[in-house]
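Query form — protein Queuosine transporter QueT

QUESTION: What is the three-dimensional structure of this chain?
INPUT:
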Amino acid sequence: MKMSTRDLAINAILAALYVVFTTINPIGTGAIQLRVSEMLAMVPFFNRKYIPGLLIGVVIANAFSSLGPIDVAVGLSISVIAYTISYFVKNVWVNAVQYSLLCAIIVPLMLWQVLGIPYWPTFVAIFISNLIVTLIGTFLISRFGDRMMLTRSIEQ
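ANSWER: The structure tokens for Queuosine transporter QueT are given below.
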């Protein structure tokens, strides 16, 4: 996949925004989280050229977590799996749900293993909060993505 200078710049901006929105959010990590930055994680479902920017953003943002390397590995894994699934599932709304579901399955598992936090309440909390955020992000990107040059097709 060939990237223009503009695409590289947008990837860098997306990564930086993801990091900022995650790290300034007091409830962006843990068992109960509302990670506004997950709205940006929906961008690659519209244009795959922006996967690198989001992956870099996830790695950097999760490195600031109290769990450090394990949170980096888990966050990166969730994103890679979700973006791989999105290669086969072209509906952005379905992809928002599958991303939220992956987060809800894997993050509580990590928190249970590492911190002993109960799995099912964490699953419910993360799924609901992540689903709300990702659906809002999907709506906003589908509505305003062209204006921000985020949803233009790869072939253009």
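ADDITIONAL NOTE: The longest helix spans residues 119-144.
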